[in-house]
Write a structure and sequence with these properties.
Layout lengths: L14 H5 L33 E5 L9 H4 L7 E3 L4 E8 L2 E10 L10 H7 L5 E4 L1 H6 L6 E5 L7 E5 L10 H11 L3 E2 L5 H8 L8 E2 L7 H5 L5 E5 L3 H7 L9 E4 L11 E5 L3 H24 L2 H14 L7 H13 L16 H17 L26
Parallel strand pairs: 1-4, 1-5, 8-9, 8-10
Antiparallel strand pairs: 2-3, 3-4, 5-12, 6-12, 7-10, 7-11
Helix pairs in contact: 6-12
Length: about 400
């Protein structure tokens, strides 16, 4: 399961993010999208307020964490394997909304650059996956505003061999255990959460190794001595069932539970497009909420499309039915997706956002990349388009 430094929207710091900015893919799947001219528009009509094609840029290859987007497409879609995009009529509750949707892959498909950079390079992009830490870090250069949170809790975790570390249960236990055993925590160099953990005394240079390349090879070679970054909704299944050289369970702890509570892959707009898109977002965001609820009720159709896309895009990313099934179940079981502390799916918790903004601002200021002068949490997100009646 190959990943890169910007795995699924993991924010990187300073020069790393800049160095990864490459030329975006040309073309658009919307050019070959199925014609919806003869389709009857249902109870939600986006045609007067939204672009004729709503273009959504994701932060990684197609996967179950993105399932709510692929739920927007039904049987009538076109896949462009060259640009790594899929498009078709945007559907809600089985009805046509009057516009098309184009969902673009991220990661290798956009040269591993940040989604915010891609959005500012390509004005056709309507919405993009931007994690809160990325939005704070890049607020001075590529400012964005989040309007919908498909994931309530980030799946980012640290994992370990329970046979080697039977007493490790949380991130608080990791530092002492690794120090005593001479192991390291392997992570993607530049990950902002590592800087937070260092500032909180939960990690230091003696146990950290920023050489993680997205593959399981070094973890396996260490024979259980080392720990490693990953997604709780993928790697535990993969290592036990699809990495033959390991083939046994791993334990893990969510970084969220250590206090770094970013909103992963928040659906966001460019700050300078917010006012223009507001009439569209008023109608579109509830459609996105409903699609998420429907996906987790029955993910089979969207997951079948995800697997088809992975096969056709052929980026080197491996994704199986087993991983997709595990991901959906784990997202629900761990509360990675859900209503959060209230009864609404997809909204942002104000106190949590304020707390994270304070923590992340300090981390980025210490790293020399502070948020834009005068920025507040209100500049970075809004719940104004959320339909509070939509929930799991």
């Amino acid at each position: 399961m190959q990943r890169s430094t910007l795995v699924r929207g993991t924010a990187v710091t300073g020069a790393v993010a800049i160095a990864l900015t490459l030329t975006s893919c040309a073309g658009s799947a919307a050019e070959t999208a199925p014609s919806a001219a003869d389709m009857e528009i249902g109870s939600v009509d986006l045609s007067a307020d939204c672009p004729s094609t709503v273009v959504i840029q994701t932060d990684w290859n197609p996967e179950a964490e993105h399932g709510h987007l692929y739920e927007l497409l039904k049987d009538d879609y076109t896949i462009d394997a060259n640009t790594k995009a899929v498009s078709g009529p945007l559907m809600s509750d089985g009805e046509y909304t009057g516009v098309n949707v184009e969902i673009r892959a991220g990661g290798p498909a956009i040269g591993f650059q940040t989604v915010s950079a891609q959005m500012y390079q390509d004005d056709a992009i309507t919405l993009g996956y931007i994690s809160t830490d990325e939005a704070i870090q890049l607020s001075g250069t590529t400012p964005t505003k989040a309007v919908f949170a498909p994931l309530d809790i980030s799946p980012t975790m640290v994992m370990w061999d329970p046979a080697t570390y039977p007493d490790v249960k949380t991130v608080d236990d990791v530092k002492g255990a690794l120090s005593a055993n001479g192991g390291v925590w392997r992570y993607f160099d530049g990950s902002a959460y590592i800087e937070y953990l260092k500032s909180a005394g939960l990690a230091d240079a003696s146990i950290l190794d920023g050489s993680y390349d997205g593959t399981p090879s070094n973890f396996v070679a260490a024979g259980g001595k080392d720990m490693q970054q990953g997604f709780a909704s993928a790697e535990p299944y993969v290592h036990q069932n699809e990495v033959s050289a390991w083939g046994k369970p791993v334990d893990f702890a969510l970084i969220h539970d250590a206090g770094w509570q970013t909103y992963q892959s928040s659906v966001s707009v460019k700050a300078d497009k917010f006012d223009e898109l507001s009439p569209c977002l008023t109608k579109l965001v509830p459609v996105l909420q409903k699609a998420g609820v429907e996906y987790y009720k029955d993910p089979s159709a969207a997951n079948a499309l995800i697997l088809e896309l992975v096969d056709q895009y052929a980026t080197g990313w491996t994704y199986t039915q087993g991983v997709a099934d595990y991901s959906v179940k784990t997202q629900v079981d761990l509360g990675l997706v859900g209503n959060g502390p209230d009864s609404t799916y997809g909204n942002f918790d104000e106190s949590r956002f304020d707390d994270f903004f304070t923590k992340a601002s300090k981390v980025y200021t210490d790293l020399g990349t502070p948020p834009a002068a005068g920025y507040t949490p209100a500049d970075l997100y809004t719940n104004e388009f959320i339909d509070t009646s939509i929930s799991f």
